[in-house]
Amino acid sequence: MHRLGILLSGRGSNFLAIHQATETGLLPDTEIAVVLSNKSDVPGLAAARERGLPAHHIPVAGRTPAERDLEFIQRLQQAEVDLVCLAGYMRLLSPGFVAAFPNRILNVHPSLLPSFPGLDAQRQALEFGVKVAGCTVHFVDEHLDHGVIILQRAVEVRDDDTAETLSARILVEEHKAYPEAIARVLSDRYHVEGRRFLPRGGDLR
Amino acid sequence: MHRLGILLSGRGSNFLAIHQATETGLLPDTEIAVVLSNKSDVPGLAAARERGLPAHHIPVAGRTPAERDLEFIQRLQQAEVDLVCLAGYMRLLSPGFVAAFPNRILNVHPSLLPSFPGLDAQRQALEFGVKVAGCTVHFVDEHLDHGVIILQRAVEVRDDDTAETLSARILVEEHKAYPEAIARVLSDRYHVEGRRFLPRGGDLR
Fold first, then answer.
1. Is B129 in contact with A194 (Cβ distance < 8 A)?
2. Which CATH number fits domain B2-199: 1.10.4030.10, 2.40.50.140, 1.10.530.10, 3.40.50.170?
3. A130/B148 CB distance under 8 A
4. Which of the residues A5, A88, B8, B73 has an alpha carbon 20 to 30 A from that of A122?
């Protein structure tokens, strides 16, 4: 059984999509082992508890980044997770955190990276005037929205789009792309060549 | 009749796609008034002459940028062009050139801008490891691959893609997108709001 650790800071809609994929067989032999949040009282934590999943708030205030990271790392290691999935986790991970799970932390970002890293990617995209937007599931490294790309999905920008309507259509793609990307990483049929995430040994080529 | 001026430096495959669109009615009431190249003996100039189109080589060597630009501008003005279309024209336009045709110069770039401006965009995209590539038709301003975006088309990156195979699939989309973008600009039903190219007055919303 593959074990996932989820980090979130809000409603955790991608967490719910991943959880559903583990229940429906889209993500076979996979379970969510622990859900962690840097914020208390967020809907994502409550949703995790409703589903009977171990869920913990890890306080940030009044602690050094090293203390905070240590608790995250210990919780994830105690839960014996194979993969850490960020699902609306709104903090940059420290280099020590990233190093503790090499090539084992994933995130989803609401743009076709390398375009529009950082906050408010959908608004950035609209203001730049792109006609194609999308989402990216990628490995996390110590740079913002920068690690190796696992999967991307394009979303057409409509003439009447607002940041809200565009975000909603991108989110639909995120919810499909994230479980699919997790399945690819867990399958062990892919590896990283330079910055490319490719099938091993030409078995899918 | 709308009149187009084409600038190229090589085979001019996008020029040929635009020319075909003027012949087949995809670009109605539109003709190519002049084809200019900064290089002699390129296939694009020969192809223009075969089609009976006015075609001129404008030498660059031994002339100042101002002298060179002046000849381009004069040739385009003499041909009474409504729109200047760069089709594989491998030089950055001077601010004076851009200012002579405000919001009237188009280019196509083989990436989903703002990702991968500059040379070898397809190779940049592969090396960065994106899973979605594409092309962008945009207005030209004095910055490299930066003007307002008229139209973009996404192209899936395949696991076995090389720069050559990816470029070939993107080029197919360029040949469809460029005439369509020209038609939108000439239709006068669109205008620029900030950096967004949108239908006027909500007539298409």
1. yes
2. 3.40.50.170
3. no
4. A5
